[in-house]
Amino acid sequence: MAKGWYILHTYSGYENKIEREIRKLIEVGELDSSVVLDVKVPLEDVVEIKDGKKHNTRRKILPSYILVEMDLPDLGWKNVCSTIRRINGVTGFVGASSGSRPYPISNDEARDILQKTGEIKGEKPSRIVQSFSKGETVKIIDGPFATFSGTIEEINPERNKLRVVVGVFGRATPVEVDLLQVEKIM
Residues in domain NusG-like N-terminal (predicted)? Predict the structure, then answer.
């Protein structure tokens, strides 16, 4: 048996439909629930900032891909995989050509994806989506430098931080602020 998370490639926009179809095949007995254990479309929480307003949304972490937890038997794995591959919108398993046995992703990769989705405990920061560019003028709206305006010197999207150069006592001073602490000046 090869228990693990497998990545299934799908047509774009078909992820939820295929997840429902696999669950339906498990319900009606075409797929064994002891072999196909779980199906997930990995989603993450995203804070979008549009026109100065914050909107919480959920976005696909891996567009066109879904996670399938399976315990593939040594004999009979072809039946399970071909049943899943025949679903309309499925192009195949990642890392396997048609007719060959798929390989699960590593436990570390699966843990990282599931932590981002909030399925398992771990650091799950909300990602912030806002378009800033170097040299753009912004106003700081929160924190110790609230009401200051400055120019963006550096953007760090991994940490959701900006380095903004503001004028403090007549001197240009770089300040690191969170993306939620600034707004664009129109």
Answer: 2-117
Tokens 């990282």 identify what position?
Answer: 112
Q: How far is CA 26 from CA 21, 35, 79, 103, in A?
A: 9, 10, 14, 21
Distances (CA, A) of 150 to 160, 161, 179, 184: 17, 14, 14, 10
Question: What is the reported pLDDT for 87?
Answer: 94
pLDDT value of residue 124: 52
Amino acid symbol at 54: K
The pLDDT tens digits of the residues spanning 84-119 come to: 999 999 999 998 877 788 989 998 888 888 888 877
Contact 161, 177 (CB under 8 A): yes
Long-range Cβ contacts of 85-89 (<8 Å, 24+ apart): 87/18, 87/21, 87/22, 87/25, 88/14, 88/21, 89/10, 89/11, 89/14, 89/17, 89/18
Predicted TM-score (pTM) of this structure:
0.67
DSSP E strand boundaries for the chain = 2-10, 36-40, 43-50, 53-60, 65-72, 90-93, 127-129, 137-140, 149-156, 161-168, 171-178, 182-184
